[in-house]
Amino acid sequence: MGKKAVEIAKLDVEKLLQMLNEALAEEWLAYYQYWIGARMMEGPMRSEIEPELLLHATQELGHAELVVNRIIQLGGTPILNPNQWTQFAKCNYEEPADPYVEVILEQNLTGERCAIKRYEEIASYTTGKDFSTYQMAVTILDEELEHEHDIEDWLKDIERLKEDIRKIRI
Predict the structure, then answer these.
(1) Average pLDDT over residues 11-23
(2) Which residue, 4, 60, 157, 162, is most buried by CB atoms nearer than 10 A?
(3) In Å, how far are 23, 33, 78, 123, 138 from 116, measured between CA atoms?
(4) C-alpha closest to that of 119 among 147, 154, 84
(5) For 69-89, b where at least 16 C-beta lie within 10 A, e where not — what string?
(6) SS3 12
(7) Taking all residues of the chain, what is their mean pLDDT, rounded to a whole number?
(8) How many other CB atoms sit within 10 Å of the CB of residue 155?
(9) CA-CA distance, 168 to 170, in Å (whole number)?
């Protein structure tokens, strides 16, 4: 951490590094969950949703890059072994054992809501104390909120499609 950064930081840096390493682990798991889920997904609207889930995966990878850079800037060491991701992560990885599109979306929605909570916590912890980390957390939080909105919209669209099909059958 630079001298001025140390001077203006008014928080427990070790606690923050722990929070950031937890977030880093969660971003890697989220990346893989989106990526593999998009590849495995079956069901209605798959062709429309798959490219968007792959975009979400890419954005999660971008979040991991921001977090790892901040860990290093703060003088910490990012998680070096992927075997530790599940130990650090507070958000669960849900494997896409059922490839149905709604199941995949619900799993990703759960992950997004956990990520939203994570970045709310980091933003709250750093507000007025560590401006760089705060700004990073808010930037990532904005994207996580957008992901949640996208997933909720797809789930509504699928439900509407199913309602329309039921009406046709009657």
Answers:
(1) 96
(2) 60
(3) 11, 16, 21, 10, 10
(4) 147
(5) ebbeebebebbeeeeebeebb
(6) coil
(7) 94
(8) 15
(9) 6
Q: What's the whole-number mean pLDDT along residues 96-123?
A: 97
Cα angle at 134 between 132 and 135, to 5 degrees? 65
DSSP 37: H
Nearest to 52 by CA among 155, 167, 136, 161: 155
Predicted pLDDT at 2: 64
User: Looking at residues 66-75, what average pLDDT do you find?
Assistant: 96
CA 79 to chain CA mean position, Å: 17
Q: Alpha-carbon distance 59 to 43, whole Å?
A: 24
Q: Does 165 score more than 70 pLDDT?
A: yes
| Opening angle at CA 38, ends 71 and 86, nearest 5 | 40
**Higher local confidence (pLDDT), 47 or 5:** 47
pTM of the model: 0.92
Secondary structure in 3-state letters for 77-126: CCCCCHHHHHHHCCCCCCCCCCCEHHHHHHHHHHHHHHHHHHHHHHHHHH
Matching residue, tokens 């990520």: 115
State the pLDDT at residue 139: 98
